[in-house]
UniProtKB/TrEMBL annotation, chain A:
Coiled coil ranges: 151-178
Taxonomic lineage: Bacteria, Bacillati, Actinomycetota, Actinomycetes, Propionibacteriales
Protein known as: Uncharacterized protein
Keywords: Coiled coil
From TrEMBL, chain B:
InterPro entries: SAM-dependent_MTases_sf
Natural source organism: Kribbella antibiotica
Lineage: Bacteria, Bacillati, Actinomycetota, Actinomycetes, Propionibacteriales
Listed GO biological process terms: methylation
Keywords assigned: Methyltransferase, S-adenosyl-L-methionine, Transferase
Pfam family for this entry, one: Methyltransf_23
UniProt name for this protein: Methyltransferase domain-containing protein
Length: 197, 225
């Protein structure tokens, strides 16, 4: 996703980007750009991080924060990042890879109050947040644990498939680079049932 | 085919589960690209509009955000020849399509684009090792005549939706069940509600198709626990 596309999907025209990125980024032309938060709902505080420790600790409950992270999505320092989000009282509501900036990832978060009693909808922002209690909390934990198990085993399965594919490619390359006169014999050896398991 | 009399009143013949598969596979082989999964009472041109209108409604519900490199995961349950599923893939989402018609699934695979995969499976049996952001089923559930199978299908689709995700089922906006023909049985919306609220899906709204006075539309449910 492009950064300004994300901003435009969050803010109406005339909304305010509170720019705390320290960058020269050109925000969408129809947005106002300010240095401090206006007293309005139509604002987004953009913060660029160079390390997870830079996370804003002064966001007020309800404030929407756009975090711009320097890492590509598959290299996010996951542990420190999540720890920092929780310490700063920020509930991530969506996260996107960025296609057009030096920042690799954008995370949209909302500062929640310390009781954290609500969960913000991630598909439909027009919906009110639901209560983060009882069964909803249970569901969140259960999804987290069980999905974690599946993901871990899938990663291993993927590694095994990739290793098998690489081995086959090597065999194929060996066959293709063998001089014609010798290829029949060596090809047979390479393709014997022993080699293919 | 189920067939019987109550006194001298003939009960409408109804398709059983296997006959449903044969019926749809035959229909998909015989009818054109859109009529076979759309409204066979309209020609292909009207069906083009019918499909386009519903796609617009679907987008109003799912939203217009997309992320090809980290896509939403969507299930098209009863995808037919894949018109909606292919659109979702073109929009950048990762779509799984399932259907009981082998012919339809073969066609879907032949025309597949983007992040999409298609599988021969009844609604009640599809259980992949991941959850979906959105599960939708367009004009399918009212073709399941058997109540127990309908219930199992609805519950299984619901189980695939992640927290905060959406389940969209299509039926008539009505508070009574009604059998219309051997392959059409609509259920009252409160039946979906009473089945799904205990398992964590909350009714959000009903979005009518709004096409030529059709009483059909999307019942939108969100997983809240
Ligand atoms: C009216 S068509 C709709 C197809 C598609 N959703 C569309 O709108 O183009 C109904 C589809 O439901 C499929 N179907 C019926 N019962 C099913 C079941 N129990 N499980 C999966 N698919 C089923 C049929 O094979 C058929 O493709």
């Amino acid at each position: 996703m492009q950064l300004n596309e994300l901003v435009r999907s969050w803010l109406p025209e005339g909304g305010t980007v509170v720019d705390r990125t320290g960058s020269e980024h050109a925000w969408p032309p129809l947005m106002k750009v300010a240095e401090s938060a206006p007293a309005s709902d139509d604002a987004l505080t953009a913060v660029a991080l160079t390390a997870v420790g830079d996370l804003p600790a002064d966001a007020v409950p309800g404030e929407v924060v756009l975090l711009l992270l320097p890492w590509p999505p598959h290299e996010l320092p996951l542990g420190p990042l999540i720890q920092a989000l929780v310490s700063a009282g920020l509930q991530a509501t969506e996260a996107h890879p960025l296609a057009d900036t030096n920042w690799g990832v954008a995370v949209i978060c909302r500062r929640v109050d310390d009781a954290v009693q609500e969960i913000h909808s991630y598909l439909d922002r027009s919906r009110k947040p639901g209560p983060l209690t009882g069964r909803t909390l249970l569901r969140l934990v259960d999804e987290h644990i069980v999905e974690g198990l599946v993901r871990r085993t899938q990663e291993l399965a993927l590694e095994a498939v990739t290793a098998e594919r690489d081995a086959l490619r090597k065999q194929l390359a060996a066959i293709n680079t063998t001089p014609p006169a010798a290829s029949a014999t060596e090809g047979e050896v390479l393709l014997s049932s022993d080699d293919l398991g | 085919m189920f067939y019987g009399y109550v006194g001298r009143v003939k009960i409408v013949d109804q398709l059983g589960a296997n006959e449903t598969i044969e019926h749809w596979d035959r229909r998909h082989r015989q009818l054109g690209a859109l009529r076979s999964g759309g409204d066979a009472g309209y020609d292909e041109f009207s069906n083009e509009i019918f499909y386009a209108v519903r796609l617009g409604r679907l987008l109003d519900i799912i939203g217009d955000r997309t992320e090809y490199s980290a896509p939403l995961r969507i299930l098209d349950a009863g995808c037919g020849k894949g018109w909606f599923a292919h659109s979702m893939a073109r929009f950048g989402h990762a779509i799984d399509g399932i259907d009981v018609s082998e012919h339809a699934i073969d066609l879907c695979r032949a025309n597949a684009t983007g992040h999409s995969s298609f599988h021969l499976s009844p609604l009640a049996d599809w259980q992949p090792p991941y959850l979906y952001d959105v599960v939708y089923s367009i004009d399918v559930l009212f073709h399941i005549m058997d109540d127990a199978l309908w219930e199992a299908s609805v519950l299984n689709l619901a189980a695939q939706v992640r927290l905060g995700g959406l389940l969209l089922v299509v039926d008539h906006e009505s508070d009574v069940d009604r059998t219309w023909s051997f392959y059409q049985r609509t259920r009252a919306l409160h039946r979906y509600q009473s089945l799904l609220e205990p398992v964590g899906l909350q009714v959000d709204r009903f979005v009518p198709y709004g096409f030529r006075g059709a009483p059909t539309g999307f019942l939108v449910l969100q997983r809240v626990f």
